[in-house]
Amino acid sequence: MKHAPGILSLLVVTAGITCHCAAREADGTLGLIRYPHNGRPIMITPVGTFEVILKEEAHLTLSGAGGTTDLEVAWSPLPGGLKHGLCHAIAPLSPGAHALHAETEGGGDTNIRSVYVLEAFPENYRVAHITDLHIGRDPGADRDSGTVREAIETVNTADAAFVLITGDVTDQGEPAQFASFLELLDRCSAPTYVVVGNHDRKDNHYQAFFGPSTYTFTFGSDGYLAFDTKDFLIADEMDGQNGLLHLYRRQLRASRWSIGFTHRYDVSMGMRAQLSLFVDDPLDYLVYGHYHREPGEGDGIPWGNTRHIMTPAAVDGKMRFLLVDAEGVKALETISSASEPGSP
Amino acid sequence: MLLSIILPVSCILFGQSGSIAYITGPSQASYQLTVFSLDTGETTAPGRGDCDAYPQWSPDGRSIAYQTKQPEGTGIRIIRPEEPADQAVAHHFSWNYRPRWSPDSASLVYTSRDDTSPLSCITVYSFERGEETFWGGEQRGILSVAWLPGMELMKALDPESEDEHASIALLDLRKEAEAHGLLVSVGLIGTPPKMYTDLFITTPSLATPVLSFLEPDNQRHIEYNVNPDHDARQIAYESNDGGDRELFVLGRRGITNVSNHPAADWNPVWSPDDSWLAFESFRGGRQGIYRVLVSTGNVLPVHVGNAYNCWSPDWSPDGEWMVFVSDMSGTPQLFLVRSDGSDLRQLTFGPFPALSPAWQPVSKHKQE
Question: Which fold has domain B20-135?
Answer without folding.
Answer: Neuraminidase (2.120.10)
